[in-house]
Specification:
This protein has 259 residues and is an alpha/beta fold. Helices cover 39% and strands 23% of the residues. The strands form 2 sheets. Strands 6-5-7-8-9 form a 5-stranded parallel beta sheet, sandwiched between helices. Strands 1-2-4-3 form a 4-stranded antiparallel beta sheet. Helix 3 packs antiparallel against helix 4 and helix 7 runs parallel beside helix 8. The two termini are 38 Å apart. One of its GO terms (molecular function) is kinase activity.
Length: 259
Amino acid sequence: MVLNLITNVNEAIGEKSGVISFGSGVMHADVAYLNSSLICDQLKRGRYVYPEVSGTGCGMDAVTSEKDIRSFLYNQIYRSGLGMSAVLDIVRGHHGALRMYSEPGEGATFNMLLQALESVAVVSDTVDDVTHADDARFGEGVILVVDDEETIREIATMMLGDMGFGTLTAIDGRDAVDVYRQHAADIVAVLLDMTMPKMDGSECFRELRRINPGVKVVLSSGYNEEEATSRFTDKGLAGFLQKPYSPDRLREIMAGILT
């Protein structure tokens, strides 16, 4: 979502030199403030987090409706219009609001307001509960994380690190085969994306099995399990993890195949 905004602000600057800035914060928004936003589906007052993107583009006159901004961004500033349209739809899907500040020739600043989760504190005086928390770091050995999206690799690596695992990463199936061949003795499981360039998950899985018939592979995909695993039926997958997944779900899968 932020990347879409940055892309569009960059296109608004065009071939001239310009500046793009990014920030974030937390604020308390009242109903009047929320109702003055471009998108506002009866949001409640409360705490909101807001990523903010600014750019020195051509700017625009006051915008009074979502229809106006979609039309303006499509026809005048942003040649494709698709990125900003996607931002509007994503913000609505997350029950958020979008605010824009702009003047002709002065560029624009976009604020996306997303409702903040209330923090939940868990306090325990028992030894048993403290021990249970420590047990969250149950992992031993190395997990090979294979995904062509850098963000997903980084998030999975952090989650697995919190569980106590070491990690190696690969950017596609071909890279994964090379990494596994070099470190097979240390790798206890592979978290494998299904759709990748050069070599997809299905072909990569076959190559990994040639190196080690007993390799434990967890397939990861945005598709549902039935659709994603149709090409892996009876081929020895250790598990399936549907994207996006939580740390608890990843931990549950890894605990199931390794403990």
